[in-house]
Design a protein that fits this description.
The chain has one domain: C8orf32 fold (Roll), CATH 3.10.620.30. The chain has 8 helices and 7 strands; from the N terminus they run βααααβββαβββααα.
């Protein structure tokens, strides 16, 4: 299930933007997994309503450390939960799975961003695709990518941007958001509006990362296996950069 549309999602189309279409399972989400179901129940059992459920699930996933592990396939939501860390695709998968288990319609919008957003993490970085998780709230879809970066990482990245006088790098923008309120759009990469020059392409909405990499939109610009190999070649350098960034906050 996918749809191509603009980042401004206030006017959903009847077929693909029906929130009831975004509550089901998939091979990556695996909503029948007992540990996932127990985790969603434990997180949301005291939540008073959909927004509160959304925020407690979001907070849980955001706190998982951002990392760039070496992997030859996409991880399931249960695997991300067991690993207790992950990259943007990992954390998006887990967030969507837990939201759907809590009864909150959720999906992923994939954007291609300018390579400068990853400055500092890897030299010569290709233009990354960013998973924005969207939930249906009060008749419209609202999105965020702020779940990707845990608070210690974000604080270190923002400090490094300010020290270097960079507008963008380490996955964030100085004008981006650190947190999400569950009621409005919030993007760590910047404003996210039609004038945001960092957004190079909007690939539409998908159930999970596997559906995206299997889509015509992805295959039109990437060969899936070489792309995965390319990112795995980058992962050790990115992981070192992430560890260095975190350790810089501990040094006087």
């Amino acid at each position: 299930m996918s749809s191509s549309s603009t980042l401004t999602t206030g006017a959903p189309s009847p077929e693909l933007d029906d929130p009831g279409q975004w509550l089901g399972s998939s091979p990556l989400l695996d909503l029948e997994d007992p540990r996932l179901r127990l985790r969603a129940q434990a997180l949301t059992q005291l939540a008073a309503g959909p927004r509160e459920k959304t925020l407690v699930v979001y907070g849980f996933v955001k706190r998982l450390p951002f990392a760039k592990p070496f992997k030859m396939r996409l991880y399931t939501a249960r695997e991300v939960l067991d690993n207790a860390r992950g990259d943007s695709a990992d954390k998006a998968t887990l967030l969507v799975a837990l939201l759907r288990l809590a009864g909150v319609p959720a999906r992923i919008r994939y954007l291609t961003l300018g390579g400068e957003i990853m400055r500092g993490l890897l030299a010569g970085m290709p233009e990354p695709t960013r998973p924005v998780v969207e939930v249906f709230r009060r008749g419209r879809w609202i999105g965020t990518d702020t779940y990707i970066f845990d608070a210690p990482y974000y604080a270190a990245a923002l400090r490094r941007l300010q020290d270097n006088r960079w507008a963008a790098g380490y996955g964030i923008h100085v004008e981006g958001h650190a947190l999400w309120d569950g009621a409005n759009d919030a993007y760590g990469f910047g404003r996210g509006d039609a004038d945001d020059t960092l957004v190079l392409a909007d690939h539409g909405v998908f159930c999970d990362p596997l559906e995206f990499v299997s889509s015509p939109s992805y295959r039109a610009s990437h060969n899936r296996l070489p792309r995965a190999l390319q990112w795995n070649l980058f992962s050790p350098a990115m992981d070192r950069a992430i560890r260095d960034l975190r350790s810089s906050e501990d040094r006087p």
